[in-house]
Amino acid sequence: MITKEKNQALLQAEKYVENVYHSLQERNPHESEFLQAVKEIFDSLTPVLAANPKYIEENILERIVEPERLITFRVSWIDDNGQVQVNRGYRVQYNSALGPYKGGLRFHPSVNTSIIKFLGFEQIFKNSLTDQLIGGGKGGSDFDPKGKSDREIMRFCQAFMSELWKYIGADTDVPAGDIGVGAREVGYLYGQYKKLRGATEAGVLTGKRADFGGSLVRTEATGYGTVYFVDEMLKSNGHDFTGKTVVVSGSGNVSIYAIEKAHELGAKVVACSDSQGYVYDPEGINLETVKELKETDCQRISEYVSKHPHAEFCENCSDIWSIPCDIALPCATQNEINEEDAKNLVNNNVIAIGEGANMPSTLEAINVFLENNVLFAPAKAANAGGVAVSAFEMAQNSSRTYWSFEEADTKLHDTMKSIYQDCMESAEKYGQSGNLVMGANIAGFIKVADAIIEQGVV
To answer: Per its UniProt entry, which superkingdom is the organism in (predicted)?
Structure first.
């Protein structure tokens, strides 16, 4: 039973959230992805704000939604034809209450201010959930690596770092990779940073190759971590991966290693995709073929059927969610599952969703899953394995130590178990038992909000 005092506190919290969000809409009317990310978190916080009025008194929401710093810059570089090309570069240093800014760089034509701010805002709470001392940041460019030569990518990375280097550092802001930025790109970025700084500072970038300061398991971390988290969720509800049919969107780094770990746990992954379509293999996706196509030959996933003629290729990649499956792992990009896709998955009796990409489900899709009691692992919790191992890499660089694959993988597994437990406990504490969306948002928020208050007005 809700007492009069508690009801008043809830009403006050709801009004506060509504006012802050309305103001944010007015100030950022065209940043749809950013507003979506904020609303998803704000929708979870009313019970926390009602129980902890200090957050309202300290205007925490206003302070946490506004980046500490947003840097934009021109990136001029020369292509293989000798022509000067110009792209936009970005870095949002969103929140440093818990430590240096930490978040990846994304090179993709879709990158703009809204995308960078949504990713940076999500990163605050994702990083908080790992229990590592790292704040939230993100960056990137509208540069498209597809179709570019290695030399063009190198020259672009050097030009990008020539603008970014003055804003980053091992104890200030530590970028990593994201879509379009893998170990190759991180290597080029790091080489240019060393040249400009005149010093070797391995901790300034993570996602490096292991032979010059990278951590083992970093390549696998986001995909493995997503599956580890989903496995905990399944086990808590009387299921596991054994014998389950799985659909994984994407065929990049996250997708490949989510497929690999799902296979190891006894599942059969029957579909994966890229931007041009998806491949369906009822016998189970051959992971070695996918790795060869995407990691070695840089070819389209459609080439899979030339090696496995019993498989099917379909051009509309969004139709992948019409394939019946027990577990769906969206690992491609933001908003890839809409309300209709969610209904298709539910109608096909999906048991669980694990978000390997950042914000891959729309708010409407998430509501469909929750209303139909589908087990749902939200991105900021489920895909936190990547940044967790990035923090491990920072620790190894600082202490000049080197962990084995088994040691790093065990720490990753333990971290994902801990994140799952924190989310469950937070949801339970605030009357939302089993709701991992609420649990992840609340657990991540409280740590950051308390740190902001303890550090005063800065």
So the answer is: Bacteria
d(CA 44, CA 40): 7
CATH topology of domain 69-202: Rossmann fold (3.40.50)
Residue 234 burial (CB count, 10 A):
23
Residue 298 has a pLDDT of 85
Number of Cβ atoms within 10 Å of the Cβ of 433: 11
For residues 49 and 424, give the distance between their C-alpha atoms in angstroms, rounded to a whole number.
19
Binding-site residues for NAD(+) sit at 222, 253
Token pair, residue 178, equals 């994201």
| Domain 221-382 indexed as CATH 3.40.50.720 | yes
Q: Is 294 marked active-site? A: no
Nearest to 448, CA basis, from 49, 64, 111, 139: 64
Looking at residue 429, what is its pLDDT?
97
Q: Do domains 69-202 and 221-382 have the same CATH topology?
A: yes
Residues 155, 156, 160, CA angle at the centre, nearest 5°? Answer: 120
Q: How far apart are CA 71 and CA 166, in angstroms?
A: 11
Rounded to an integer, what is the distance from CA 95 to the centroid of its chain? Answer: 16
Identified catalytic residue from 4, 54, 117, 138? 138
Nearest Cα residue to 53 out of 387, 455, 453? 453
Distance CA 139, CA 106 (A): 6
Q: Distance between CA atoms of 52 and 71, rounded to whole angstroms?
A: 33
Instruction: Look at residues 389, 370, 387, 386 and name the one whose alpha carbon lies nearest to residue 378.
Output: 370
Q: Tokens for 55?
A: 């957050």
Determine the Cα angle at 257 with ends 346 and 33, to 5°: 55
Over the Cα atoms of the chain, what is R_g? 21
Q: Which residues pair with 141 in a beta bridge?
A: 89, 107
Q: Please give the annotated binding residues for substrate, written as ranges.
A: 102, 123, 126, 177, 390
Question: Could you state, in chain order, the average pLDDT of each consecutive group of 10 residues for the chain (458 residues)?
Answer: 75 97 98 97 96 97 98 98 98 98 98 98 98 97 96 98 97 96 96 96 95 95 98 98 98 97 98 97 98 92 97 96 98 97 98 97 97 98 97 95 96 98 98 97 98 90
pLDDT for 2: 56
pLDDT at 3: 66
What pLDDT sits at residue 457? 79
For residue 297, the model assigns a pLDDT of: 85
Q: Could you tell me the residue ranges of all domains in the chain?
A: 4-65, 69-202, 221-382
pTM of the model: 0.94
